[in-house]
Amino acid sequence: MTKNFDRNIFVAIFLLLVAAVLFYACGEEKGAAEESVPAAEGLTLETAENHYFKLDFLKGSYEVSDVEDLFFTTFPHDDPTAGDVVYDRVKWVNEDMLKLVNGDGLYLYIKERKDDVMFDSFRMTSRPFYNLDENNQRLLFVFKGKLPSEKGVWPAWWLNGGHEDQWTYQNIGKVETNTGLDGYSGKGFFYNTPSAVNPTDWPGAGELDIIENINGENKVHNTIHTCPQMCDSEWNGDGKIINCANAREGDPNPGCSGQYYEVASVEGTFACIWEKNQIRFYYWTPDEDVRGENGPLSDQPDPEKWRGDNLKNTVRLLETDAECDNASHQDWQCNSCANSNTCTFTNMKMIFNITLCGKWAGAKFDDSDQPLLNCQSYILGEGRTKIHNQSIKIEYVSVGKI
């Protein structure tokens, strides 16, 4: 009986060890799969809001379909900033506008069209949207990669909000798809054609620009756009209170901005922490360790451990007594702003895009009396080959609660 008892114990221990090994192996396999597949798979109306995700193209393994689970890769409207590009994939004449190379990055291209319509380009908008609430009091947005820098070029990484049902998919009862957006192609002016990528009530839900750079200057700008009656701001504790409205053309206050910072190239790691009354903007050079303990690409990012010189701008958001009036603002602006009376950013989506010339890069192209025309002449002339095949390179992008 003792021998049988000992044998039974041995068998039981052996089976437990086998089970433990199998459990561990399955857990490892499951963990690897979870790391390589974005969490947006099966995105629904209930999960589209405040949906956290991470795309790490240097470490993970993805397909283009994984990217499109998280982002719209078309904008079936004209450029709202009046740039000389085509964002609508139905109208593209170039192929391979998006390239995914695991272990390297996701490339979003701008390519010449060899016609008078200028260039095909990318405007990629997140399908999830974000709001602050009791469970989401501080959100962290991180991007590692590179943006193009050349005369006439205006790339950006930013957040834009909207109140309309199309923006949050309420009008169709499900999360919109790229194919669904194709139905907007060629239909309606962008200022009165709301879609899942085009809020026509701008700036009534707010805009937050994390990276903007124009004309190859390698100066990174942080800017906020709101309605006049939404937000005042104080940047970097300088004591100056600035309203965050975008008013008439030529207005000295096109939104509110911090101090731009210069970089060797628009490359590295950029981060933004969004809170109710404060927004912080960070930057790390390409050679800085961002994956180390508590870094922005670590499993547990902790801004309190980040170096002070990585913090580039801090803005304190304030309620305001300002009003939208016809003397200072556009009629469309006051119409869009009629119900936006508190300093609240709503339904914010992440956007990557490259445009050319347009309302800012074109207006600042040179010091002549016709900078926009000179910009357009440049991109169609000597600048054409310099701009063709430039891209936004995304090595890592994430949204999370901290």
What does this structure look like?
- With 402 residues, the chain is of the alpha+beta class.
- It folds into 2 domains: 1-36; 46-401, Jelly Rolls, CATH 2.60.120.200.
- Helix content is 18%, strand content 27%.
- The longest helix has 35 residues, at 2-36.
- Mean pLDDT is 90; it is low at 1-5 and 9-36.
Taking pLDDT < 50 over at least 5 consecutive residues as the criterion, the unreliable ranges are 1-5, 9-36
How would the global form be characterised? globular
Our Rg estimate from Cα atoms comes to 24 Å
Strand content: 25-35%
**Class per helix and strand makeup:** alpha+beta
At the fold tier of CATH, the topology name of the largest domain is Jelly Rolls
Q: What is the residue-mean pLDDT, rounded to a whole number?
A: 90
Q: Report on the biggest sheet.
A: 12 strands, mixed
> Number of domains in the coordinates?
2
Provide the succession of SSEs.
HEHEEEEEEEEHEEEEEEEEEEHEHHHE
Q: In angstroms, what separates the terminal alpha carbons?
A: 60 Å
CATH class of the largest domain: Mainly Beta
CATH architecture of the largest domain: Sandwich
